[in-house]
Amino acid sequence: MQPLLNVDTALADILADMKTLPAEAVSLPEAHNRVIAEDIVSPIDLPPFDNSAMDGYAVLFEDSVGASPSNPVSLSVSMDIMAGSAPDGQLQTGQAARIMTGAPIPAGATAVIPVEDSDDDWSKGEDSPLPAEVRLYRSLAPGENIRSAGENVAAGATVMAAGAIIGPAEIGMLAGIGCPRVDVIRRPKVAILSSGDELVDIYDELTPGKIRDTNGYTLASLIRGAGGIPIRLPIAKDTLDSIRALYRRALEINPDLLISTAGVSVGAADLVKTVMNELGDIDFWRINMRPGKPLAYGTISGLPFFGLPGNPVSTMVTFEVLVKPALAKIAGRPFKRETVKATTAGPLRSDGRRSYNRVTLSQENGPIMAQTTGIQSSGALMSMVKADGLAIIPEGMTEVPTGSELNVILLRRPDW
Ligand code: AMP
Ligand code: MG
Fold it and tell me: Ligand 2 mean position to 268 CA, how many Å?
């Protein structure tokens, strides 16, 4: 019997094989949540010109020195500058320019006084008549309320680095620097193959002896969550011809990764293994984990391939532990597993393999508590539906007493 392979060793071997996909250009709105493929350098200053941070009056700051409510400084209003306009002419000593937030600072001006600190009344908004004079009620520091050109981003500065995920702020920045198309890492296309004579699809009638294919759907959802594009193939029957035909179809869609479920366990019909060996270079691993011991891994026509165990929880847990980090690397996504430390609310059991027990998490003024979701059978999908996380029982441990501290992989954010 092949020795059991350590989970971390298996993952390290897998990651060493994975290659990040090349870039493709997409339009800016489509770049949401994609991975940027190259450093982005701003061709322009942001803001592109000195502009006002306030609605008020642009002045020469020296003119405001000593101004107070009891001793205001009076300036003649020589310009009216709206946002979007381009003022010409120079502001002279003794003059003020009415200016709106975001409007360009006129040449000569060195500060902006907010309208509230003047005698002007803008109760009519932008339709308020332009006064001949304005009184300043306080003095200003040089540059006050001026957003200077390039203070946010200087032309030539790197605004985001290759590998960053494009979120709303990044989209705004790319728009700000005038980037209608963005080079992002191509999303991995993942072919999903389910096999088994007992499987029917969700639209089919559940006749005696049959169950619905759940793995095809959980995998598609997991792949989408990891930034991939899932493509579910029809269910293969337990015949060599059917399995071969489905693998060929899978290759025709030109995927970046192939994932099959079922047919890799000792008791399973060996048909899947036969076809895998015909088409590719596959190792049949026995991994020291529970659930999910049997796993086929290698390449088919040069493409990375995972043959996951068929039991629904095993499929999901092996995906979480081994496939998700691999897919992240293919997709160029930074991968950091979210874990918390939690205290067991009751005793847990294992068989000495590294166990991933499905738990709910709660916290009330104390440590985070982990409670088993009940039946931990690898076929019991309900244990995953209920679970907030996977509590990891280290290898070699069979009894976990109440009150033990375990690392828990977060599957979702608990709502405490
Ligand atoms: P096998 O690896 O073929 O021995 O399958 C192991 C267990 O997983 C059996 O109980 C199968 O019925 C079940 N199973 C296999 N494939 C799927 C699937 N796509 N969806 C749900 N259960 C499955
Ligand atoms: Mg089967």
Answer: 5
